[in-house]
Amino acid sequence: MKTVKVAMLGMGSVNRTLLRILSTKKDRLAKNYGIVFKVIAATDTSGIVIDHSGLDFLALADHKSAGGSLSDLISYKGVQIENILNSLDLDLLFEATPVHLETGGEALNICRTALTRGISVVLANKGPLVHGIKELLEIAKLSGAGLEYSATVCGGLPILNIGARDMIAGDIKIIRGVFNGTSNFIIEAMSEGITFDQGIEKAQAVGAAEADPSLDTGGWDTAFKLLIIANTLMDVNLGLSDISVEGIDNITPKKIQSAEALGKTIKLVASAEGGKFIVKPIAEPRESFLGSINGWEMGVEIHSDIYGVSYHKLYEKEPIPTAASMMRDAVNIFTGK
Ligand SMILES: NC(=O)c1ccc[n+]([C@@H]2O[C@H](COP(=O)([O-])OP(=O)(O)OC[C@H]3O[C@@H](n4cnc5c(N)ncnc54)[C@H](OP(=O)(O)O)[C@@H]3O)[C@@H](O)[C@H]2O)c1
Predict the structure, then answer these.
(1) Which residues contact 108 (CB under 8 A, 6 or more apart)?
(2) CATH assignment of 2-156+319-335?
């Protein structure tokens, strides 16, 4: 039996859900994979809790779900993880703090430090990858640490695993996908004739959009995902500036209705084809694969030289599949899969 000593960075909905899954699946993980996860550290904006005997998964998740701060807990230490990471005895970080668009934030440095020390990293946060994916992969290769991030693209959809593990010796020629539920919701709401701002309000009312949905509507969240997928599955070294990004801000009810009159529906599409990487709204035939991706769904089509054209779609309303993907990544690292 392998005990994996874990630090959880961020105690938001993703890592709280992960704690609940690790609790529910504890026996299964031990029996089928020979792994016991022991969470010895966790962070939020207040700092870090550390308990070398292992924090109680459900008590920690419940405390944060009830609006508590880690600073309320007896195991709280008044320091930030970046100041003590070098002295912590850890095997794995589960990184689920917010995305920092401009630089990748402190999370990027924390990932560098951890991987250099041989501590494996599983990410839900796209920030460090957008700003340092190739560098982090190189550090991990040198130190032998694991680096997995399947939860960063399309939540529970195992697109990176399918492309990297199951399409052996294949070349991916084309990737096309709809990766952003908020944009789906806003366009769908506007198809009823309401304005862009009213569409945002409606998406917020159903819980699809953040208070500040500009990363989504501006196409950036989609571009981040395209960057991560392309850099992982295609032979490229892509930066954000290599992607042409247009969001849905200029879509009007009139444009949507004109597309509908032609049997089409507007989607915010990410594509990688012929060395061009583009995010933009496209009128897709309603009966096509991308045209059928609605609301809480995300999907991607992969055109391979030898594995045909495959279509992958996921419905994810709450972050259970995202958190499960982080568990899957960790199990793959520690079982050597
Ligand atoms: N939600 C999803 O469905 C989903 C799906 C795929 C990927 N992701 C990604 O996963 C990440 C987490 O998402 P989430 O929905 O769990 O976010 P969230 O609910 O907003 O939670 C963020 C957590 O990070 C903590 N935090 C913020 N800044 C921190 C810092 N500097 N150091 C330590 N902790 C810090 C917050 O602390 P406080 O508790 O003190 O505020 C909070 O606990 C994001 O990068 C997101 O893009 C989310």
Answers:
(1) 127, 128, 131, 132, 136
(2) 3.40.50.720
